[in-house]
Model the fold of this input.
Amino acid sequence: MNPRPHTVAIDDPAERPRVLIVDDDAFSRRLMRPHLDADYEITECADADSAHAALLAVPHDAALVDVEMPGRDGYALCRQLRDHPMTANLPVILVTAKSDIADLERGFEAGATDYIRKPFNPRELMVRVRNAVELKRRGDSVRRWRERIDRDLAMAGALQRSMLAPRPMLRPDLRIYTTYQSSIEVGGDLFDMMTLPDGRIALYVGDVAGHGVGAAMAATYLKATLSEVMRHHEGAAPSRIANQLHRLFVTQLRSPGLYATLFLALIDPRTRHWQCINCGHPAPIVIAPPTLKRRDFEDRGGPPVGFPLTGEQPFREEDEVGLDLPEEVSILLVTDGMLEADNRLDPDRSARGQLAMQITEWLEHRTCDPMESIVRGFTRAGFALGQDDYTMMLVEQIPPGQIVFSETTALDPARLASLAAAMEQRLAASGWPASSIWAAHLILIEHGANVLVHGRAGIEPELSVQVRCLDHALELMITDNGHPWRYEEAPVLPEDHAADHGRGIMMIRRAASFAVSHRRDDRNVSLFGIRREWSMPE
Amino acid sequence: MDLSVLSRRSRQVIGTIVPDCAHREQAFTVLEGGIDPAMLVPFIGYVRSAHRDFTRHRLNGDTTACARVMHSVKGAGGAVGFPEVSVLGAVAEEHARQGDHEGLDRVDRVFTEWLSLMDAAGMEQA
Done:
């Protein structure tokens, strides 16, 4: 008399969807059950409390909830289910003999997904339950998929961050600092710097169009390919490297929507000559003292790498820019994530101008880590970062005249002490205050002691120190051949735990206004900033 | 007794105090084929039990409890092919909510008569 709608019977009870019926009226439960028994595992409850307990004990696929029950009613149960993470996504069908639209509205406000009126038509009951169960299954499937994607993205992000770790390059003649942040787990920015076999330094910053996994994978591909191309084309001009990269990108990725802006520079550190190609990337920001005649990078270059319909060799030698940069000049390379950041305080403020100001301030005072200082100042000025990936690379050239002390020595306690004494003498002769000399002394002694105590077996310890004097700060660059070590990753220990292990780290942290380090040629290179008017921090 | 005859007699009994029953039962008619024979006996048992509770609450003057019992009857009748019983449940619920004790007396008597009809129709086993 009441033909059942088409259903797919599942024989294994463990596989069958579970449906809970809660109604204080046993006859109402009895009316529903025969229509559902064939397809579902049914749980019956006579009140809201036992229903809530049953749903927390065993996951269900749908619940038929009577509205009028003694104690807590169906609305209250519905709200309680929505508030609990285990039942928040459970489809709830309210079963009600109430007929006012206000009652239904109240049910939906409480979190019901559907309702069925009493007395009910069995076919309607079956269709509504089947829909609810299907809704739950699909929702669960989407949630599982999203969890898997989230896990994969987190893993991909961790891998990418390890490849794009913003480590500095610290050389006697050049310092390069980087920072990178993706707006989601993975990002489309890329950057790197390396010393080429011919002694030149290659550096680049790029940005793959778009966001997400595709852009991130293209960025990773570009970074790996660019390193290979540069190593295999020793002495090649930037335009030739860019052409080779473009050809590989287009032929191997074959995706017309994928392309990347890139600024690539090959620097000869002896002559300070920069030979650059700009492939559609924002022009570098030049920071020069006001006394110096400013030379900006010319607005030259080619299309983005991989850009469609640009031919096999879109970059010509004439597109390159060659500059002999004065030693006082620093260069900042950025991606558009910084340049296009909205300013909430002053929409008309120029991101370029702000960045130049932050860098000038840092170059002068060096009160903390350069990248941290610039990002903090930039966001304090109202710029909102995080809407897009951003990368910054600051290249600071070191004028030889600022180096007041430079020594290398095989390391033992006596030589370390005499090296520190020689450095002290030189700084005192340069007119530096005793407090900042003391801080430099402490850093050198503690760092050298660490290398001596934790040196590598079978390797004679060796240490180089270079002291650079600026107007308001001095920089101490120490190179050692000890175990791989990074100050940025050293744990911060509370004072009462630092009596033995970590005491030296803690003292160096207090003495230095910033400390950065990297590993190059099997050596640790550490750079410490010390303010001229140094005093022990609180 | 034939189920269609039983259905007609049931409507006659309830129609004695609900003159517009035929009109009102449209809201509770959910089965396409009339009375569900499989649920007939359990339903009569259910109404007998509900009527007992209703009478007790009525005699105690507990109109809230009367309304709750009749609310359930209202939700059940149509589901087994007795939409007129749902109408009677709805009428009783209205009387209970309004505190209309005379109305509740009338409903009580009609339920008694309806159950007698079922018994007379050979449903004593209910």
Q: What stands out?
A: The longest helix of chain B spans residues 37-59. The CA atoms of residues 44 and 126 of chain B lie 6 Å apart. The domain at 3-123 of chain B is CATH 1.20.120 (Four Helix Bundle (Hemerythrin (Met), subunit A)). Chain B touches chain A at residues 27-28, 30-34, 36, 38-39, 42-43, 46, 68, 71-72, 74-80, 83, 86 (CB under 8 Å).
